[in-house]
Amino acid sequence: MLDPGLVGCLAFAHRLPTREPLPPGRHALGLFAERDAVLHVPPGLDARRPTPLVVLFHGGGGSAEKILPMLAGHADAQRFLLLAPQSLFPTWDLVIAGHGPDRERLDAALAAVASRFLIDPARLAFAGHSDGGSYALSLGLTNGHLASHLIVSSAGFLAVQRQTGAPRIFLSHGTRDAQIPIDRSARTHARLLDQAGYDLTYVEYDGPHAYDPAVVARAVAFFLADHGAAEPALPQG
After folding, report:
1. In this model, does residue 79 exceed pLDDT 90?
2. Cβ atoms 36, 86 nearer than 8 A
3. 131, 154 Cβ separation under 8 angstroms
4. C-alpha 19: how far from chain center
5. pLDDT at residue 166 above 70?
6. Residue 134 and residue 153: Cα distance in Å, rounded?
7. When comparing pLDDT for 22 and 162, which is higher?
């Protein structure tokens, strides 16, 4: 059998915090000497209550600082944590050759956030644009027991060797995307996800290879909506 890590399985498990929460603002987590993970903490957060978390993956050649504006305003307004890991190399390991150091670094970043905040297991999203969207979609389907929602913008590919859980998916793509044409990406992904039985919201918009702020707002509402489903149990002890 393959090592679960080689197919993208995360080792992270929900736990109770053991450290003081971080104050509002943007914090490097101090995990890595280069391209550290960044946590955006909104003002007015009640750290005693389960808190939604969005893990936001940057595009190829990108960084945490470049991608955080996609959701930082929504995080402040809606009071959810926003974690922006950074790939070790210019883009994510899965895009280059397969799961490796970026999966390990994500596990460490999730553990660091969980040590300070009580993460809501029913509201943990993987999100991203372009290569980050591909990574969020692929890693999220592999770890659907952890990721409750996937917010995927302009993803180029879908690479999954093991599927777990049933994350709800918001998939969007611009119809004028010349970098990743929609016919060979999102439309194919939407068909495959629908055939597999995932709860899918699919949005096409008139735009190039860039996320659309109005569509992002719809995705945030999708993530935070209360659909009356039974909530997963919170971690004990």
Report:
1. yes
2. yes
3. no
4. 24
5. yes
6. 8
7. 22
